[in-house]
Each structure stands twice: as structure tokens, then as C-alpha cells.
Hints:
The protein is of the alpha/beta class and 373 residues long.
Amino acid sequence: MRSDPKVRFREEATHTLVVVFLRGGADGLSMVVPTEDDAYYRARPLIGIAKGDTKALDSMFGFNAAMAPLHRAYDEGELLIVQGAGSEEDSRSHFEAQDYMEHGGTGAGGWLGRYLRNNSRAANNPLAAVALGKYSPESLRSSPATVVMDSLAELSLGEDAREYLDDLRDLYGAASLPWADAGTDLLDAMERIESLHSSPYESEGGASYPDDAFAQHLKQVAQLVKAGLGVEAVTLDLAGWDSHVVSATLMNPLMTRLAAGLMAFYDDLGPKRENTTVVVMSEFGRRVYENASLGTDHGRGSVMMVLGGGVRGGRVLADWPGLAEEHLEGPGDLPVRFNYRDILAGIVQRHLPETALNQIFPGYTLKPMETMY
């Protein structure tokens, strides 16, 4: 591609925030198992995860064996786990809970949209926000610009891309109209994207991405980050966690995909992890008690995870009174001990230290989780 001295956006200050949403209400008690809480096994005599099927995290919790690949990132101090995370929205409706969490407050748009509007690095970059999948989530509503794609191949202009882009650049360069600069920004981004198609992508750090949609989306995130495209926020989903029936049959493959994909991404990024943060979240957790179908029903608290980005990992944060009935909420739910916005606010503080957090999460009195970094 032709090099142009007027390229307007820069990669050096970019901090990429990757938001992975586990849609369906992920059972945090099957992912990060309280192996030393006898009440857990009394509540789940048939579906409880045996201690021997976990990998110890601390004196209370163990990773489900399906999540075990992530244990290396935990041991290396770059994975923080928060047990009992969620929101104050207690309808236990998937759609209401997801909307509430993705809006992140009472202001217009989604919390990531407000994050990008308050991010000067995103102002002139049409690739500041990327939604991998078929649609843009509510969290990115009101973003200055969002690219929605299933694959980088969708962004190619074809075999005549170079000639076409050069002609457009000449056209915008001769214009004095208000939108000329925006057009030039877009062309800069498109030239960088076209350069990604010039040769097959090769992952680094011994990373091996599984051949499923979630892992392949993460592979493309790594490609975008390492290409210096100035991507500030990326969203992607791993759906299907609504485990009402035979929960292990449903959850084990999902946990395997989640852990394998995230670890391939972790290894592939290498030094780029320092300026990249991955946060994994779900709209709510599951009831503590198993149901008659060997599954669990909609509950409250679940697990959030924060990976990379200088995080003070190797810890499970949990205000853990135990799972005895007197400590549960409503019909038998794990209470929300950590509001998701306080966790996200700690991440935002690191990525945008000069930003007033109440502009990102309005209508809520924040207590940013300062122990994260």
C-alpha cells in the first residue's frame, strides 16, 4: 500500500479493551467451584463439580477442569477472577438483565459508547470500535463509529483496492469540505486493513487457535491489535449458557471453548498484552440449588474475569460468607457482592485515567475496584 505522510491516527497510545459477553447466564459456581464449601455439595448432590475435577486456585476455589488452560495465566499473575459479580437488576430476565448491564447506567447509549465518546484517541479513527459477529451490541450504542463484521475478509475491497483507494485519496486531498478529513481517516484505516490481506496471518508465542467461531474471532482481534489499527474497544459473544437441563453437557464444551480461545489469544499477543485488557462477563449467574432436570435456574451472582493489561492477577476476589441457606438471596441465589460497574470502572481508570467515571457510568455511585492493578 502507498505510504502517506498525512496518516492521522496513531497506534502508540492505543489501549484495547476486549469485552467477552457470555450470553445466557453463565453458572459461575460450575466455572470457579467453591470446593471447600460443604454447602455447595449439599445444594448440588448430583451436579456439583467434584474437587478432583478441578484445579486449585486458592484455599476455597478451584477451576473447573474444562477451564484449566486458563490456570497458566492465573499463575503468571495476569488473570483476576471475581466471584459473586453482577448487577442490582434482579428480574432474572435474560433480555432485561443484558440490556441493563450493557447500558451501564442511566445515560444515553451503552457504557462502551460513552467510553469511546470520552476517548480522544477514538475521535478520528473509524476503527476505534469493532463488534465481531452479526450485530453491534447495546454496550456500543452511541459509539462515534462501530465496524460490525464476522471476518476481516468482509472488509476487503477486492483485487483493485489499491487503485480505488489511491483515486479516493486524491479526491479527498483536493477537497476543502468539512467531511474531507473524515474521509481521509477512513482511507487510512482501509489501507491498513487491505495490508492485512496481503499474506496469511501467522500467530505468535506458540498460540494455537481452535477452529470454532469464538476462537477465530479472537484470532482476528489479535491481528487487528498487532496491526496498529488503533482499535480501542472490541466486543464478541460466546452464547448458549442457559443451563436449565443437564448443565454439565451444555457447559463443558462452552468452558472448553472459552478457556482455549482466551489462552491462544493471551499467548499470541505477547508484549501487546500490556496494553490490552480482556473482561469476561455474563448477565447473571445461576441458582445455587440444582433443579430436577440436573441443571440450574436463573440466579444472581456469577463470575467476572479480567485478563492481561497489567492486572494484579493470580487471585480470586470473593466476599464469601458461604452457601448455607441463610447467606443466600431470594429463592436460593448467590448474592451479588461486587457490582459489575465497579469492576469495569477499575479498567476504565487504567485505560482513560483523566476521564470522569460518572460520565461513563452515570446514575450510580461508583466504588472502582482499585485493587485490580
